[in-house]
Amino acid sequence: MIAHVGIEVREADVEACLRFWALLGFEQVAVPDALAARASWVQAGATQIHLLLVDEPQVPREGHVAVVVGDHEATLDALRAADFDPQPRTEYWGSPRAFVRCPAGHRVELMAFAPVPGGS
Q: Are 93 and 118 in contact (CB under 8 A)?
Protein backbone atom coordinates (compact mmCIF):
# COMPACT_ATOMS: atom_id res chain seq x y z
CA MET A 1 0.00 0.00 0.00
CA ILE A 2 1.20 3.51 -0.77
CA ALA A 3 0.50 5.77 2.20
CA HIS A 4 0.80 9.09 0.39
CA VAL A 5 2.04 10.87 -2.68
CA GLY A 6 3.09 14.50 -2.94
CA ILE A 7 2.28 16.67 -5.93
CA GLU A 8 3.42 20.24 -6.44
CA VAL A 9 0.80 22.99 -6.78
CA ARG A 10 0.72 26.76 -6.70
CA GLU A 11 -0.92 28.25 -3.62
CA ALA A 12 -3.46 29.92 -5.93
CA ASP A 13 -4.60 26.45 -7.12
CA VAL A 14 -5.11 24.85 -3.70
CA GLU A 15 -8.84 25.58 -3.30
CA ALA A 16 -9.63 24.29 -6.80
CA CYS A 17 -7.50 21.21 -6.13
CA LEU A 18 -9.33 20.54 -2.86
CA ARG A 19 -12.66 20.66 -4.71
CA PHE A 20 -11.27 18.35 -7.43
CA TRP A 21 -10.00 15.74 -4.96
CA ALA A 22 -13.33 15.91 -3.09
CA LEU A 23 -15.03 14.75 -6.32
CA LEU A 24 -12.78 11.66 -6.12
CA GLY A 25 -13.77 10.91 -2.51
CA PHE A 26 -10.89 12.66 -0.72
CA GLU A 27 -11.45 14.91 2.29
CA GLN A 28 -9.13 17.61 3.57
CA VAL A 29 -7.24 16.55 6.70
CA ALA A 30 -5.06 18.40 9.18
CA VAL A 31 -1.43 19.00 8.30
CA PRO A 32 1.15 18.89 11.10
CA ASP A 33 1.88 22.42 12.33
CA ALA A 34 5.46 22.32 11.06
CA LEU A 35 4.19 21.72 7.48
CA ALA A 36 0.99 23.78 7.49
CA ALA A 37 2.53 26.80 5.74
CA ARG A 38 3.74 24.72 2.80
CA ALA A 39 1.16 21.98 2.23
CA SER A 40 -2.49 20.93 2.21
CA TRP A 41 -3.46 17.29 2.54
CA VAL A 42 -6.47 15.25 1.44
CA GLN A 43 -7.27 11.67 2.37
CA ALA A 44 -9.48 8.79 1.22
CA GLY A 45 -9.26 5.65 3.32
CA ALA A 46 -5.61 5.15 4.21
CA THR A 47 -4.28 7.11 1.20
CA GLN A 48 -3.27 10.75 1.33
CA ILE A 49 -2.46 13.23 -1.42
CA HIS A 50 -0.08 15.95 -0.23
CA LEU A 51 -0.50 19.20 -2.12
CA LEU A 52 2.96 20.73 -1.80
CA LEU A 53 2.96 24.52 -2.23
CA VAL A 54 5.67 25.76 -4.58
CA ASP A 55 6.11 28.82 -6.80
CA GLU A 56 6.91 26.83 -9.96
CA PRO A 57 5.25 23.38 -9.79
CA GLN A 58 6.75 20.54 -11.78
CA VAL A 59 4.08 18.47 -13.51
CA PRO A 60 5.35 15.17 -14.91
CA ARG A 61 4.45 14.71 -18.56
CA GLU A 62 3.58 11.02 -18.24
CA GLY A 63 3.82 10.23 -14.55
CA HIS A 64 0.53 10.25 -12.70
CA VAL A 65 -1.42 9.51 -9.55
CA ALA A 66 -3.77 6.53 -9.90
CA VAL A 67 -6.75 6.17 -7.58
CA VAL A 68 -9.55 3.65 -7.21
CA VAL A 69 -12.90 5.42 -7.07
CA GLY A 70 -15.94 3.85 -5.42
CA ASP A 71 -18.42 4.35 -8.25
CA HIS A 72 -16.43 4.85 -11.44
CA GLU A 73 -19.28 6.05 -13.68
CA ALA A 74 -20.76 8.36 -11.04
CA THR A 75 -17.31 9.85 -10.46
CA LEU A 76 -16.85 10.50 -14.18
CA ASP A 77 -20.31 12.11 -14.29
CA ALA A 78 -19.46 14.34 -11.30
CA LEU A 79 -16.20 15.40 -12.95
CA ARG A 80 -18.02 16.25 -16.20
CA ALA A 81 -20.62 18.25 -14.27
CA ALA A 82 -17.75 20.22 -12.70
CA ASP A 83 -16.30 20.96 -16.18
CA PHE A 84 -13.49 18.41 -16.08
CA ASP A 85 -12.94 16.18 -19.09
CA PRO A 86 -12.17 12.59 -18.06
CA GLN A 87 -10.91 10.56 -21.00
CA PRO A 88 -11.78 6.84 -20.97
CA ARG A 89 -8.89 4.45 -21.63
CA THR A 90 -8.50 0.79 -22.47
CA GLU A 91 -9.50 -1.48 -19.60
CA TYR A 92 -6.59 -3.14 -17.86
CA TRP A 93 -7.11 -5.91 -15.31
CA GLY A 94 -10.76 -5.82 -16.36
CA SER A 95 -11.07 -2.40 -14.73
CA PRO A 96 -12.67 0.60 -16.41
CA ARG A 97 -10.14 3.44 -16.43
CA ALA A 98 -10.00 7.11 -17.36
CA PHE A 99 -7.50 9.96 -17.17
CA VAL A 100 -8.23 13.53 -16.13
CA ARG A 101 -6.11 16.59 -15.28
CA CYS A 102 -6.46 18.21 -11.86
CA PRO A 103 -6.62 22.02 -11.65
CA ALA A 104 -2.84 22.13 -11.09
CA GLY A 105 -2.28 20.17 -14.31
CA HIS A 106 -1.36 16.78 -12.84
CA ARG A 107 -2.51 13.69 -14.68
CA VAL A 108 -4.80 11.49 -12.56
CA GLU A 109 -5.87 7.96 -13.47
CA LEU A 110 -9.26 6.83 -12.21
CA MET A 111 -9.82 3.09 -11.88
CA ALA A 112 -12.91 1.12 -10.90
CA PHE A 113 -10.71 -1.26 -8.89
CA ALA A 114 -7.05 -1.89 -8.18
CA PRO A 115 -4.88 -4.10 -10.38
CA VAL A 116 -5.12 -7.79 -9.67
CA PRO A 117 -1.73 -9.31 -8.73
CA GLY A 118 -0.44 -11.39 -11.65
CA GLY A 119 -3.31 -10.15 -13.85
CA SER A 120 -3.00 -8.65 -17.29
A: no
